[in-house]
């Protein structure tokens, strides 16, 4: 593994080992520790007490972050007729049934895919391409819907999807280093509230086991997980 550079080590040295922080303190420290010359993304990683190998312990969902992610998602809508026109009016970047074939041919220049239920017969053929990339539309995430205009508006406003990975972690962006601490904290709170509501009935023991926030290049800062251990 590559060794971290001096700037990272200097930043990491400012994080007291074994210390947990309140959300406001954590995001403020992430901002202070940022050293890259670009506007880094602020990310949160949550370690959950679930076993994703069991279908009844999969944690997934979507949340509209109050202040967005700082990045405008490129939205593809696979729809026809009136629904396609609605998607275009709502601001979708790419619209049409012909994108099914384009994706088969290797085109993937989008961030979120929305599809109407009547198109899922065709979209289902893209599972092996879109599934591993987290781009497959699903009803649970609100990306298989007849209300495409609402789906597009929410995504453009900062809606993000999340799904637990095979190691039991959920990892999402919650903004940019340039955001004010209060906005980052409110985004973090909205995300954590949604994760808690998504707790599977089959999950036993401690559900939220660890929370770390960091910038793209910076070290992780541990948030006090006890704040989210309700229910």
From TrEMBL:
Q: Which InterPro entries match?
A: Ribosom_uL1_bac-type, Ribosomal_uL1, Ribosomal_uL1-like, Ribosomal_uL1/biogenesis, Ribosomal_uL1_3-a/b-sand, Ribosomal_uL1_CS
Give the GO biological process terms.
Answer: regulation of translation; translation
Which keywords accompany this UniProt record? Repressor, Ribonucleoprotein, Ribosomal protein, RNA-binding, rRNA-binding, Translation regulation, tRNA-binding
The record's listing under Pfam families reads: Ribosomal_L1 (PF00687)
Q: What Gene Ontology cellular-component terms does the record carry?
A: large ribosomal subunit
Instruction: Please provide, alphabetically and separated by semicolons, the GO molecular function terms listed in this UniProt record.
Output: rRNA binding; structural constituent of ribosome; tRNA binding
Q: Which Gene3D superfamilies does the UniProt record give?
A: 3.30.190.20, 3.40.50.790
NCBIfam families, per database record: rplA_bact
Subunit-level organization: Part of the 50S ribosomal subunit.
| Protein's name according to its UniProt entry | Large ribosomal subunit protein uL1
């Amino acid at each position: 593994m590559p060794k971290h550079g001096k700037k990272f080590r200097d930043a990491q040295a400012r994080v007291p080992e074994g210390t947990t922080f309140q959300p406001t303190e954590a995001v403020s420290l992430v901002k202070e520790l940022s050293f890259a010359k670009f506007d880094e993304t602020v990310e949160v990683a949550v370690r959950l007490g679930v076993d994703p190998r069991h279908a009844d312990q999969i944690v997934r969902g979507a949340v509209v972050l109050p202040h967005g992610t700082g990045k405008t998602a490129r939205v593809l809508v696979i729809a026809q007729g009136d629904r396609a026109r609605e998607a275009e009016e709502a601001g979708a970047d790419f619209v049409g049934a012909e994108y099914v074939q384009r994706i088969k041919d290797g085109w993937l220049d989008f961030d979120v895919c929305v599809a109407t239920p009547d198109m899922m017969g065709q979209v289902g053929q893209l599972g092996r391409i879109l599934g591993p990339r987290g781009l497959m539309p699903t009803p649970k995430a609100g990306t298989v819907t007849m209300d495409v205009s609402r789906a597009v508006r929410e995504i453009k406003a900062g809606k993000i999807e999340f799904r637990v990975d095979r190691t039991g972690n959920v990892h999402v962006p919650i903004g940019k280093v340039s955001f004010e601490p209060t906005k980052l904290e409110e985004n973090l709170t909205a995300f954590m509230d949604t994760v808690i509501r998504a707790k599977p009935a089959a999950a036993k023991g401690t559900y939220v086991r660890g929370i770390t926030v960091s910038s793209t290049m910076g070290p992780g800062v541990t948030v006090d997980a006890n704040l989210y251990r309700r229910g």
